[in-house]
Write the structure tokens for this entry.
Amino acid sequence: MAHLAIVLAAGASTRMGTCKSSLPWREGKTLLTYQLELWLKLGFIPLVVLGSHNSHRQKDCPIGSLVVINPDASTGKTSSLLAGLKQIPPDFEILAISAVDQPRELNIYQQLLQAHQANSALITAPIHQGKIGHPLLFANDMRSHLLNIREETLGLRQIIKDFYPLIHKVEFQNPDVLLDINTPEIYQQQLQK
């Protein structure tokens, strides 16, 4: 059974002012390529969801990754997540969900994966000072719940709320698990680290 990761990259990046997936990141890679390669290193098959506006970024996707184009990306993040979920084989073992503006170091992914497997958790989430971060890892038993998310019910947030007591929370001292690169200022700060 496969380990898969959905990387959401179909947003319009309005606060950033430019397509986030093409932003230069560490090791001379784009933000998108960097993340896809990390998932591949962990043995996950990454599936990136792009929008019509940035579908040409497929060229940045390394061999071994999959691409889905969400033609309805403007309707919200939930539509992108559902577009990705529909392409995932029903017998996956672990599904990670992350976004292109949430890059993490490999050791964060490794710790989450080990904790998820060791605890046979339904959902595993990183937390920092009591706040849930990303990426989230889901067991196959969560598939039907994921397929029923809706934008009007806050998408993934509703699942987190409904299943909160069952989430295996992994405490990180590092606030990077909460990082969202939404503005040029945050991006520049992160580049200087």
Q: What stands out?
A: The helical segments are 31-41, 77-85, 106-119, 143-147, 156-163, 184-191. The chain has a mean pLDDT of 90.
